[in-house]
Amino acid sequence: MSPNEAGREPAAQLGTEADAHEAARRLARRYVPSVSSRLALIVSTVLACGCVPIPHTVEVTPKIEGVLSSELGPVSGAEVRLTQILSDVVCAKAEHITYTDAAGKFEFQPISRFHFVYPLYGDPLYRWNVCMTTKGLTYAGTVGATLGSLPPALIKLDCIVKASTTPVTPQTTGREVDNLQICKSTRGT
């Protein structure tokens, strides 16, 4: 074999340029997934991660209406705080603060949160904690939570502070708070 022929293949084995392009196209078609395969891959990926990128807003607490009274009648000017941190028994990290009116009434609008993704499965926990402060003492109003569904549209609270009511402190435990709540709650419409 001559040096000029080294590294060259016979023309019969190479074929024409058109044959080479056709062979390359066939090879590329073998490895390019179809539209349905691509769609199946996208759907399975979304399902595997458990969420869909759908921006939306969710109300994470209900509207809360209530009345605060004592043995002597309505308590006006009391500070009422709302937080979503159940362990915050004195509502020190309150997200909303309001004051009772002359009739002892107070109200919180629902807290809304914006989410970038919509979960496909799993049960979200919606929680709220209401505390009242009057005459320098803080009382546990109510603690509420809903698992797996949206919070109720409205919660009505009837809160009574008695002379014998024990105030809460940051050291009060969750189990103690259950026994110290001064509000009775009902789901409203």
Radius of gyration: 33 Å
CATH class of the largest domain: Mainly Beta
> What share of the residues does DSSP label as strand, in percent?
35-45%
Number of strands: 13
Average pLDDT: 82
The secondary-structure element order is HHHEEEEEEEEEEEEHE
User: How many structural domains does the protein architecture include?
Assistant: 2
The CATH topology name of the largest domain reads Immunoglobulin-like
Under CATH, the homologous superfamily of the largest domain reads Immunoglobulins
CATH architecture of the largest domain: Sandwich
Could you please describe the fold and organization of this structure?
The chain is α+β, with helices and mostly antiparallel strands and 189 residues long. The protein folds into 2 domains: 39 residues, no CATH class; 132 residues, Immunoglobulin-like. It contains 4 helices and 13 strands. Strands 3, 4, 7, 12 and 13 form a 5-stranded mixed beta sheet that branches. Strands 6-5-10-11 form a 4-stranded antiparallel beta sheet. Strands 1-9 form a two-stranded antiparallel sheet. β3 and β4 form a beta hairpin.
